[in-house]
């Protein structure tokens, strides 16, 4: 299989995982009305999934270090279809949140193992660039999930929309089973106990700990911005429908385009300067959303997405290149920190919103971004 096809093949799992992870974001105002609840309460539908990912990610990595890469990726994609069907049938908010949690348990074997697969199957000089391609696929998946969920909600209803997502996920799983090459450079762990020792070693690595903290801040800020902006745009004077709220996430495609050039950018600028610059760009985008016009808000989200995806792709690849053993469990810990950040980013800004509205949410995001710059300056090697 040629190199171009191999690069494309690693994008399908990322597309599929983020299609389902972020699809409900454009539906939150609709779900809040149907279940007669508040923005902070309905945001638990997002928090439940990210919390489940945070809990299970390191263990998914340890299992993949024993069983292998491709078989774990394919199995997880097929298993994920069941909770999607149950979400469509959920008669109450509590059950919807429960099945979103169960979906979150199925997702870590997809994206944590793919990143480890990339780190093992490509040389270090190419791995970050291939990770950029994978990240572009995740951003397209995140955008497609939000857009598709909104369109399906406005045409056939959100329940039928989740059934359609389940069918698409199953088809993607079958596609990966057929076209993703079996791993060639995988070194099997001696067992779960050996993987556990490797996991403990990761927690003594200062560079990895700093990167985990950056991952925490990355998804915290993404979720805070792209979840609560829905409540701004669904209210007067914008009054956007679920379909239009989903379409706003076309801004993610700007991030997808940006990370395609990640490999050459790192060679030219270096990791630390590039990521710090991307965080500053992210700050500018967040602040631009305070301008009370729709074009300014959309431009701000596009700028934020560009900076955010550069940070995420670089940090993820940095974990894969820094961990000397137990690469998948190292990435699993990154995913844990990342999704704990997302869980808090889905909930804490709801409290901030109740105090100071959207400006308070933006202030929280900018403060977190500044803290990430400090972590990178102190924790990453030149």
Explain what the structure shows.
By secondary structure, this protein is mainly α. It has one domain (3-379): MFS general substrate transporter like domains (Growth Hormone, Chain: A, Up-down Bundle), CATH 1.20.1250. 84% of the residues lie in helices and 0% in strands. Helix 9 packs across helix 19 and helix 16 (262-269) packs across helix 17.
Features:
single chain; 382 residues; mainly alpha; Growth Hormone, Chain: A
Topology summary:
Layout: H1 3-9, H2 11-22, H3 28-34, H4 39-42, H5 44-67, H6 70-79, H7 81-89, H8 93-106, H9 108-121, H10 124-155, H11 158-179, H12 192-202, H13 206-234, H14 242-248, H15 251-259, H16 262-269, H17 271-288, H18 294-322, H19 327-379
Helix pairs in contact: 2-10, 2-11, 5-8, 5-9, 5-12, 5-19, 6-9, 6-11, 7-8, 7-11, 9-10, 9-19, 10-11, 10-14, 10-15, 10-18, 13-18, 13-19, 15-18, 16-17, 17-18, 17-19, 18-19
What percentage of residues falls in helices of 4 or more residues? over 70%
Number of strands: 0
Distance between the termini: 36 Å
Gross morphology: globular
Look at the structure and give the mean pLDDT. 83
| Helix and strand pattern | HHHHHHHHHHHHHHHHHHH
CATH architecture: Up-down Bundle
CATH class assignment: Mainly Alpha
CATH topology category name: Growth Hormone, Chain: A
Q: Give the count of helical stretches.
A: 19
By helix and strand content, what is the structural category?
Answer: mainly alpha
Low-confidence stretches: none
Count of separate structural domains: 1
Query: Approximately what portion of the residues adopt beta-strand conformation?
Result: under 5%
Task: Name the CATH superfamily classification.
Answer: MFS general substrate transporter like domains
- Radius of gyration, in angstroms, nearest whole number: 19 Å
Q: What about the largest sheet?
A: none
């Amino acid at each position: 299989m040629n190199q171009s096809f191999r690069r494309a093949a690693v994008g399908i799992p990322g597309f599929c995982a983020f299609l389902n992870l972020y699809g409900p974001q454009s539906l939150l105002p609709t779900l809040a009305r149907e279940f007669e609840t508040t923005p902070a309460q309905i945001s638990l539908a997002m928090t439940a999934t990210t919390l489940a990912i945070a809990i299970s990610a390191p263990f998914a990595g340890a299992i993949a270090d024993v069983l292998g890469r491709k078989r774990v990726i394919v199995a997880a994609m097929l298993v994920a279809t069941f909770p999607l069907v149950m979400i469509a049938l959920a008669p109450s908010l509590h059950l919807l949140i429960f099945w979103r949690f169960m979906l979150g348990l199925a997702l870590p074997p997809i994206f944590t193992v793919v990143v480890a697969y990339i780190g093992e199957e490509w040389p270090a000089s190419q791995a970050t660039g291939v990770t950029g391609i994978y990240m572009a696929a995740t951003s397209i998946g995140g955008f497609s999930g939000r857009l598709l969920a909104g369109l399906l909600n406005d045409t056939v209803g959100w329940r039928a929309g989740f059934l359609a997502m389940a069918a698409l996920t199953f088809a993607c799983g079958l596609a990966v089973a057929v076209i993703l090459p079996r791993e060639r450079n995988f070194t099997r762990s001696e067992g779960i106990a050996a993987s556990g020792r490797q996991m403990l070693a990761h927690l003594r690595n200062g560079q990895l700990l700093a990167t985990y903290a950056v991952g925490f801040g990355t998804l915290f800020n993404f979720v805070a911005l792209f979840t609560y902006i829905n409540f701004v745009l669904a209210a007067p004077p914008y009054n956007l429908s679920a379909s239009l709220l989903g379409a706003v996430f076309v801004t993610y495609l700007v991030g997808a385009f940006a990370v395609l050039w990640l490999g050459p950018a790192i060679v030219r600028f270096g990791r630390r300067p590039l990521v710090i610059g991307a965080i500053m760009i992210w700050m500018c985008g967040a602040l631009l959303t305070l301008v009370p016009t729709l074009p300014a808000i959309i431009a701000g989200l596009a700028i934020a997405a560009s900076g955010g995806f550069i940070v995420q792709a670089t940090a993820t690849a940095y974990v894969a290149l820094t961990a000397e053993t137990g690469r998948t469990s190292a990435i699993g810990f990154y995913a844990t920190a990342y999704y704990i950040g997302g869980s808090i980013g889905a909930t804490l800004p709801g409290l901030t919103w109740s105090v100071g509205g959207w400006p308070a949410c933006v202030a929280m995001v900018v403060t977190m971004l500044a803290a990430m710059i400090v972590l990178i300056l102190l924790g990453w090697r030149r």
